[in-house]
Design goal:
Blueprint: E1 4-5, H1 15-26, H2 43-60, E2 66-72, H3 75-86, E3 92-97, H4 100-109, E4 114-120, E5 142-145, E6 147-148, E7 153-154, E8 165-168, E9 185-189, E10 199-205, H5 222-227, H6 237-252, H7 255-276, E11 280-281, E12 293-298, H8 304-313, E13 316-317, E14 328-331, H9 338-355
Parallel strand pairs: 1-13, 3-4, 3-5, 5-8, 8-9
Antiparallel strand pairs: 2-10, 6-7, 9-10, 11-12, 12-14
């Protein structure tokens, strides 16, 4: 049976990436060595890292004002590393609380300086993006989560502000065209749209750094990582390689414009199917629905376990909602083919016909 991988992360990867990564584990570029046993300071890995950085700069259309880093850990590490580097003890940062990850980020930031929550959608169970808010003009930065994986919401138009923008783009980075130069710092765990778990992409505008008065531990200091070209310590070699392969695949497939077109088609098909079937409901505000993570529910919640068991039986993997939210979640990252969404929509229609 063909499995359809709707996992939210770690998630589906392109087949050519899996094949190349598998081959590299046994024999990397015909060196006679496994990728897992080459030195991170060898020319072999240096070429991998430089290609990955070059692909990021091409896809984001970055100029020399920006630095690209591949660091250990996931986005959660950045919840502390961002304020440690950008937020002075007596300064204030503005944060958007639009879900689980934004809420965690602001709590970590409060350990380093003042945090002002300027947007909060918890009053409606995080089922919309609160866009009607005031940003203090003296804020060190405004932090937002571009796509809320757990709740199924997404920014489709970012706020206009003169305050530096900082974004956690873990779950929708490289999924569509975007003016990335609007942001002063972007971070993203790789395990959704950009590769394997274990590496974190950080893109930072250089003029944001060196402004805090605190002493920053060397391993947490962005400037030190820039000076060391992401090689201050042994990097997650395999994860960086898989990211490089994934970025290479995005470019070969037509870049962000093509990814955006594909993802819009997939999302429109799924949401239109859900909306047409009365036994399901998608409570997220229509204008804020995520193209990456569709979250919906059965109106008769007593049938949920039966439906999820049916999905598993039919090869639909990873559709159980987040543990604190419940329901059903279908993640549609770049590598997910339209055929998987078509198959899932057919399953929804068949189930509704039999159980409606």
């Amino acid at each position: 049976m063909k499995l359809h991988n709707f996992n939210s992360g770690p998630s589906i990867l392109p087949q050519p990436v899996l094949e190349a990564a598998s081959a590299a584990i046994l024999n990397f570029n015909n060196t006679g060595l496994s990728l897992l046993e080459i030195g991170h300071r060898t020319n072999w890995f240096q070429e991998v890292l430089q290609e990955a950085i070059a692909h990021v700069k091409i896809l984001m259309d970055l100029d020399d004002n920006y630095e690209v880093l591949f660091l250990h850990g996931g986005a959660t590490t950045q919840f502390m590393q961002v304020p440690m580097n950008l937020l002075d003890e007596k300064a204030t940062a503005a944060y958007c609380d639009h879900g689980v990850w934004g809420n965690k980020a602001l709590k970590e930031a409060a350990l380093f300086g003042n945090v002002q929550v300027v947007a909060n959608s918890s009053n409606r169970q995080y089922r919309y993006i609160d866009k009607d808010f005031f940003i203090p003009p003296n804020a060190a930065y405004l932090h937002l989560t571009s796509n809320n994986t757990v709740e199924g919401t997404q920014w489709h138009q970012f706020p206009e502000t003169t305050v530096p923008l900082v974004a956690d783009m873990s779950s929708d980075i490289f999924s569509k065209p975007e003016n990335y130069k609007r942001f002063s710092l972007i971070y993203a765990g790789a395990q959704k749209n950009m590769g394997a778990a274990g590496v974190n992409l950080v893109v930072v505008r250089k003029d944001m750094l060196g402004k805090v008065s605190r002493a920053i531990p060397t391993i947490m200091n962005y400037q030190k990582h820039i000076e060391a070209a992401s090689l201050m310590n042994t990097p997650p070699v395999f994860a960086v390689y898989v990211s490089m392969l994934t970025l290479r695949w995005i470019l070969a497939e037509g870049g962000l414009a093509e990814m955006g077109n594909r993802n819009k088609v997939k999302a429109n098909l799924l949401y239109s199917t859900i909306d047409s079937l009365p036994i399901f409901e998608a409570p997220v505000a229509v204008e804020d629905r995520s193209e990456m993570n569709a979250v919906f529910f059965m109106k008769d919640t007593s049938r949920e376990e039966q439906f999820l068991s049916y999905c598993k039986q039919e090869g639909m993997i990873g559709v159980k909602g987040y543990r604190t939210v419940g329901g059903i979640r279908v993640s549609m990252y770049n590598a997910l083919p339209i055929s998987s969404v078509v198959s899932f929509c057919e399953l929804l229609q068949y189930y509704a016909q039999k159980n409606g």
